[in-house]
Amino acid sequence: MTARGKDFDGALDRAAHHARVWLEDVGERPVPPRADADAVGRTLAGPLPDRGLAPDGVVDELASRVEPGLMAIGSGRFFGWVMGGTLPAALGADWLVSAWDQNAGMRFSTPGVVAVEEAAGRWVLDALGLPAGADVGFVTGATTASFTGLGAARGAVLARAGWDVHERGLVGGPPVRVLVGAERHDSVDLALRYLGLGTPTVVGADDQGRIRADALATALAAGAPGTPTIVVLQAGNVHSGSFDPFAETVALAHDHGAWVHVDGAFGLWAAAAPELAHLVRGMADADSWATDAHKTLNVPYDCGIAIVADPVPVRAAFGVHTAYLVDAPGPGNPYDKAPELSRRARGVPTWAALRSLGRDGLGGLVAGLAGHARAIAEGMSRIDGVRVVNDVVYTQVCLALADDARTRAAGQRLVADGDTWISGSRWQGRDVLRVSVSNWSTDDDDVARTVEAVRRAVRDPG
Ligand SMILES: *Cc1c(COP(=O)(O)O)cnc(C)c1O
């Protein structure tokens, strides 16, 4: 059967209809889902039906069953974890990525989308002030981006010690020492585990969760000279939003021959806003960086970005045919710069987001998120019984009440209230309510309503 355009009309028309209904409502509906996964699952119980269903019917059935279980992540009052919304241009581009159905692994086979991803990569490097010759790989998220950067790091530091890990594996080779800050994200430990590098050595952090340069100096000096070493730094602590002191630590690590990887899932984007760029001073001297496009840049899930300054070690680790690359890397295929072979052209929505924002718009987006975070912190600190417990330098605000029990109870009342979503967490020995401002659509009204929601949750003991 030949597929024709009209075969898709029903499914696409219904999908566009449901998408519009959702997007019209997402800023006003209660933010939390009404149904949990078990409740939605009960509407999907039963065996695979014997008879199929027309495409438009499938889309209608899907939309109606899933709707009660949707979290309004696209709402301007969703502040959970660290999750961005979706810019309109990025969403439109994402739909096209599915319609075009290009396997974005090779320049030769899918030149259109590969060229768009390469352009997006150049814009990302430029906007973030990173080296123009770096390899950019589009991956599923910052976890995989860190896996990629640390995979390149592992090969490079072992090669310097005379050990080819890609040829010989890890067994029998020199041990690799990995130093991380006490408040690195859990995904760094995951990536190290996938790479067979085990549990890292933890270096102390200060009261905002920043790695301490003096503690790093001590840890680096403790190793025998020539020990293959990787240092993982952080741009954007999920609780405080703080940034590691790159200007001191990157040079220090390099003095000891270490590879420096930066986890900047949402913080790397501070580099794009002139008023925030001081936070990332010295960061561009690192060797690899992991970030997300699906957080601060507001492209739809999923898109992470793995950036490695020197193409040779990343292609040696992830390239399919590594031997010919070593002298003259050239542009390379997408599958040489990331773990996946076949994948969707997930870098295309990143291009669209950047094209729609422009340099000024991107800086304005990031500075705007940080500005709303400051406004939320100011509003919260005027509520009796609420304290802002971090220095609000970026997009993250942590609140605490008089004790953990009260903080937790207020968090539960906020979820029940539904006008906003703020995650409960634990930071530095106390329960906190954590606000992450990551959505492009958050405005002053959302900020005011959020402060009011917290005021209600604190005032009404339930
Ligand atoms: C979200 C986050 C990650 C993990 O990113 P994913 O996209 O979920 O893989 C890593 N580090 C930090 C600091 C994060 O905020």
TrEMBL record:
Belongs to the group II decarboxylase family. The keyword Transferase does not apply. This is Pyridoxal-dependent decarboxylase. Its cofactor is pyridoxal 5'-phosphate. Pfam families: Pyridoxal_deC. It comes from the Bacteria. Keywords: Decarboxylase, Lyase, Pyridoxal phosphate. The keyword Lyase applies. InterPro entries: Aromatic_deC, PyrdxlP-dep_de-COase, PyrdxlP-dep_Trfase, PyrdxlP-dep_Trfase_major, PyrdxlP-dep_Trfase_small.
